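Subject: mismatched residue count in predicted assembly?

I count 603 residues in my input, but I want to confirm that the predicted structure covers every chain. Input:
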Amino acid sequence: MLSYILKRIGFMVPMLVGITIICFAVMHLAPGSPTDLQTQMNPRASAELKERLRAMYDLDKPLHVQYGLWVQRLLVMDLGKSFATDRRPVADKIMERLPITIILNILSMLLILAVAIPLGVLSAVHQDSWFDRAVSVFVFVGFAIPTFWLALLLMIFFGVDLGWLPISGIRSLNHEYLAPGAAFWDLVKHLILPVGISAFGGLAGLSRYMRANMLEVIRQDYIMTARAKGLSEFQVVYNHALRNALLPVITILGLSIPGLIGGSVIFETIFAIPGMGQLFYMSVMARDYPTIMGILFIGAILTLMGNLIADVAYAVADPRIRTA
Amino acid sequence: MFSELWKRFLRNRMAVAGGAIVLFLFAVSLLAPWLSPHDPLAIDLKKILAPPSIEHWCGTDQLGRDVLSRMIWGAGISLKVGFVATGIAVIIGALLGALAGYYGGWWDAVIMRFVDMMLCFPTFFLILAVIAFLDPSIWNIMIIIGATGWMGITRLVRADFMSLKERDFVMAARVLGAGDARIIFRHILPNAMTSILVAATLGVAGAILTESALSFLGIGVQPPTPSWGNILTAGKDNIDIAWWLSLYPGLAILITVLGYNLLGEGIRDALDPRLRGGR
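Triage response: the counts match. Full output below for your records.
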């Protein structure tokens, strides 16, 4: 097991190098170097700002030296200083917001699992029933619905018309004065819409995948064996078939990480949640390049780590992977 | 062969509905100058945020412009972005996939590792980062969406090429003296076209969704050019007073994307009924 994990981590090294090269390319392949752009697009760009960019990215040195110096700083998590008025280190700005984004994404992943797996399994077990058809209509709409629009509609309905749920932030203004229980409930109320909606996007894909998986597993020989030895239908479905149909879900979850993280830009912006996605959006609007590059890099690292965790989890769950 | 496919496609009611939606949208965007009841750019400060009425079926926006007219013109924008972005993705994806699948070896290793690296980035992050460096003009948006959305097609085309290159007709072409380029473009690529077509149809839907999200965030199609996404921005700004700004444009996006998805899956099912239901 340990050797498998080490092997997987070994595979990550070239990926990591590739990620830094792509980040570096994004920074430089854009027409004109960052310094040129600053002066062209922003009439207020001062000579001082230009100088700061030049110093930060060592733009007066040859490309490979620039890249080397940049990677050296990355290794010690030095992502530079933000161009925003606070001029704080980018790494600090990201780190204080990262936990919120990660927690929200984990919550919505749990919600996706809790809803999509039963939906997929039930529609496979009752193939072509009215339930199956309803789920497939739901899946099609789920694939097509712009989630930010769904967010708007639900904000109008639950937030404005009914006034049941708050529509921005993660806490009420008076949260400091609330009792612990009430404060928790306050947090939950703020999270219902963002988590629910970001989960909605992933629901359709996973439940459809789960259904297809289950249909395939149910046709296998060992299921027939289980039936033949007289097990109840419930035991056949939930003890024998479900276990094997669940395995690939781990991989799918791993693959859905970049989408979830990318989506956090939209949700955090709409719901004014102070996470990494919102910081990214604000940095793009303010052309705060060091922060943009920092978040782009961290986003890729998160994906890489998510994939690693998924692969290891798969190996834990399925011995065939480890020995292969 | 083709008429058989056509029959199978027509028997799939969902696919036909998808095709009808797509055709309808083409018609709307071509006929926009005649269909739209008002000038989509005409500002009328006396009618700011008017709710839907006989004169303005979908109400007016924060500058008194007719929302229905802006949605009709926005249909063309969405279509343009969807097709150009997908075209770019298909060209990059098919080319790289063909090289990787046909030559194998180093080509394959390098291209596929590059695909893996690109897939590490949340696509939306990559798009936003590039936009921060460029102007958010409609052309840049199309190029960026295309340039960050080709990886799936590369994988698909590579798999097709890997199996097709072993077939007898490729061997026959080679024996007849056809060069690599001729074999790739004249013999194998046409056979991989069907799966590319399905991926492209679904890709248009994805590109339209991405464009609308970008425009909604204010970094896509810029006002005053109407787009479904940027009408929704106004919807969010006036969320407590003007529901019509939020409801209708989103419905248009939903129906459009649904149309392309149904059409794409319909084509796939017609081509290969065994794949039904998988994705």
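The CA atoms of residues 62 and 237 of chain B lie 9 Å apart. Marking this ticket as 'not a bug'.
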